[in-house]
Amino acid sequence: MDLKQLIEKTAEGLGFEVIDIESSPRGRLLRVFIDKPDGIDVDDCATVSNQLTRLFEVENIDYDRLEVSSPGLDRPLTKLAHFERFVGEQVQMRVRIPVGNQRNFTGALHGVEGDTVVLATATGEQRFAFDDIERARIVPKF
C-alpha cells in the first residue's frame, strides 16, 4: 500500500475525508487536508495527526514534519465528487493541456456530466475532461 492509500484508509477509518496530500520534494514535510460534513476543528486535526504519527512509526515512514488541517475557504477540488458537491460555486482551474492558448480558467461550476466538468466562464460554457484538470480551487466569497 502506498503512502497516499495508507493516509486515506486511516483518516476514513476515523470518519474523515482526505481532500489533498502534499509533500515536499524529498518527502520531509507532509501536509494532509481533511474534511467531514459538519466541518473540521482543531481537535479533529489533532486526532488525525496523532493517529498518523503512530501509523508512520509502525510502518517505518521517514518524515520530519506532519501538518493536518482543514482545506480552507479556497479548498482544492481533487475528486470528481468534489466538483459535483460544489456546483454553483466560483472556481479557478488550471488544465494540463492548453485550450486555445489558455490554461487557467475562472467561472461558475455548472456541473458534472460523466467524467466532464462544466464551467461557465465569461466567454461561455467550457467543458473539461476531469483527467485534464491539473488543479482546481474554490474562489472564496468575502
From TrEMBL:
What residue stretches are annotated with the Ribosome maturation factor RimP N-terminal domain? 6-74
An annotated GO BP: translation
Kindly give the InterPro entries that the UniProt entry links to this protein: Ribosome_maturation_RimP (IPR003728), RimP_C (IPR028998), RimP_C_sf (IPR036847), RimP_N (IPR028989), RimP_N_sf (IPR035956)
Q: Which GO terms describe its cellular component?
A: cytosol
CDD domains, from UniProt? Answer: YlxS_C (cd01734)
**Family matches, as SUPFAM superfamilies:** YhbC-like, C-terminal domain (SSF74942), YhbC-like, N-terminal domain (SSF75420)
Provide the protein's localization: Cytoplasm
Q: Which UniProt keywords apply?
A: Cytoplasm, Ribosome biogenesis
Task: List each copy of the Ribosome maturation factor RimP C-terminal domain by range.
Answer: 77-142
Q: Which family does it belong to?
A: Belongs to the RimP family.
* Stated role: Required for maturation of 30S ribosomal subunits.
Task: State the protein's name.
Answer: Ribosome maturation factor RimP
Organism lineage reads as: Bacteria, Pseudomonadati, Pseudomonadota, Betaproteobacteria, Rhodocyclales
